[in-house]
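Hey, quick one: can you model this chain's 3D structure?
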Amino acid sequence: MARSPIVATYSIAACDLEAQQWGVAVQSKFLSVGSVVPWAEPEVGAIATQAYANPRYGPNGLALLRDGLSAAEVVEHLTDADEERDVRQLGVVDGEGRSASWTGSQCNEWAGHLNGPCYAAQGNILVGAKTVAALAETFEGNAQLPLAQRLLECLAAAQAAGGDRRGQQSASLLIVERDGGYASLSDIVIDLRVEDHARPIEELRRIYGLHRLLFEVTPRQEWLPLEGELRTEVDERLAKAGHDSLASWAGVENLEERVDGEDAIDPVVLDALREATA
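Sure thing. Here's the predicted structure for all 278 residues.
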């Protein structure tokens, strides 16, 4: 049976147990790497499948984690049942933060992995071991960051350390949390993909910034009272934009998650309104 193209890449599967988030970040010289490598389910685990990737490792591995197997047991179960295990690479983090990886003996050099509490870092066809070491060291050294930002820092550090020997093409960031996604009706907090780009990690950072702009909310205590001169300014700018309410304008700009009534305004919304009506 002919093999599919090799997913030469580096990735990190990880979790933040305090925030109850699990996720995967990945970069590769491969079109649309986010459609193959990353898999995650809140309170269950995160999986990265790559090299001559077996995409069934994703859903099948999550099912095994759901049944109570540890990360190490899942890696063993999946690879033992796969006759082509020697060309696979796999990283798993379970619901308790335990991690395990597999690098098949026939994965193209350089290939290897590192594991620690709450992360599994792996890569193949890399410039060298420093790429995977950078993933691990950056994850361990940035515990203060939200998981999404932490994983983006990992990708950037890995690229700076050498990255994929063949170059760059696509990148992906997947973060899940129970009811943590859109309108609290989804478990997908972030699912961002750069399919084909000369600098995919930089582009992933850019669209992550857009995601934060559109879907995060400034703490209410930091909102500005809509009164006096600010109220007058906002009304004038809304009229200039052709709207009679903040909610109406925000709906067009996809900022409705940052609007709640007319008594106060999120500073991010104010900045966006000012920029739009400058």
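One thing worth noting: The chain has eight helices and twelve strands.
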